[in-house]
Design a protein that fits this description.
By secondary structure, the protein is α+β, with helices and mostly antiparallel strands. The protein contains five helices and 14 strands. It has one domain. The strands form four sheets. Strands 1, 2, 3, 6, 9, 10, 11 and 14 form an eight-stranded mixed sheet that branches.
């Protein structure tokens, strides 16, 4: 069985045809991005563009994109962001859904979370989940105010975003953080007293106050957390109509491979993390 649901934020495909006694079902989220160049006005070779695209933002020097620079940037963005988010979680199936048979034995698969990023030039007739504008910074510029739909040519680089409590630098590649937003993830400390959901969730404290939160990819760093599997959990719940995203034990994410289980093993809450002798 292979099914696809199309959402405003992403598409999701559930594939159980890959299942056997050793392989789980695949759940692939596909994010389609349309990239649009931001060039100096009036066809000039150089110009300025304000942080965050805001009239009140600091003006930064920008240069016109060349075809070679543009293609290289797009390829680097797509390849590296897809590599970061792909295949990092397994969702544990504690339900009877998706049961299949292999060599006369019934199994219940877990869910392997896959990610596919498609990037192309934004055209009026194209179908993208999100359109991303991109500025090419002049060599004299080292920083630009980006957001989830406005990037700059340095966003694929690893740069220091903060420091931990011991003064150690916290590094991040901004584009993987922004792709997390496009998948539906918020900043790490949203919901805590210093970052209420109804306030400005882009303020500094929302990126983490404690070291463990600062180092999250949805904070200032590059570390994954279990809750970053929530877009896939949302998708599998829609596919199966089983589970509640607010209940941690429903489709609980793991960061190591878990093998399919028999119904008896599921009932016994057995976890199989090493290839079984079947």
């Amino acid at each position: 069985m292979k099914k696809t649901i199309k959402k405003a934020r992403w598409d999701a495909t559930l594939d159980t045809d890959v299942c056997d006694k050793f392989n789980n079902a695949d759940l692939t989220l596909t994010l389609k991005l349309g990239f649009k160049q931001v060039n100096p006005s009036g066809g000039k070779a150089t110009g300025t563009y304000n942080d965050y695209g805001s009239n009140t933002g600091t003006a930064r020097k920008i240069v016109r994109w060349t075809p070679a620079a543009w293609n290289t940037w797009k390829q680097n963005f797509v390849t590296s962001a897809q590599k970061y988010w792909h295949g990092k979680f397994w969702l544990i199936n504690n339900f009877s859904e998706l049961e299949y048979e292999d060599s006369g034995v019934k199994y219940i698969p877990n869910i392997w979370c896959r990610f596919k990023l498609q990037g192309s030039d934004s055209m009026p007739s194209s179908v993208h989940h999100h359109t991303i504008e991109v500025v090419r910074l002049d060599k004299s510029e080292t920083w630009f105010g980006s957001h989830s739909r406005l990037y700059d040519s340095l966003d694929t680089n690893s740069v220091q975003k903060g420091t931990d409590s011991k003064g150690n630098p916290i590094m991040q590649r901004a584009h993987v953080h922004e792709v997390g937003h496009l998948l539906g993830l918020g900043h790490v400390d949203i919901g805590k007293p210093h970052c209420p959901p109804g306030g400005n969730t882009n303020l500094g404290p929302c990126y983490g106050v404690l070291d463990k939160d600062k180092n999250s990819v949805m904070g200032q760093g590059m570390q994954l957390r279990d809750k970053h599997a929530n877009p896939w959990r949302t998708a599998i719940i829609e596919f199966t109509k089983k589970g509640n995203a607010a209940k941690a034990s429903d489709w609980a994410p793991k960061t190591s491979r878990h093998y399919p289980r028999t119904p008896a093993e599921v009932a016994a809450k057995t976890s199989i993390t090493k290839k079984p002798n079947r």
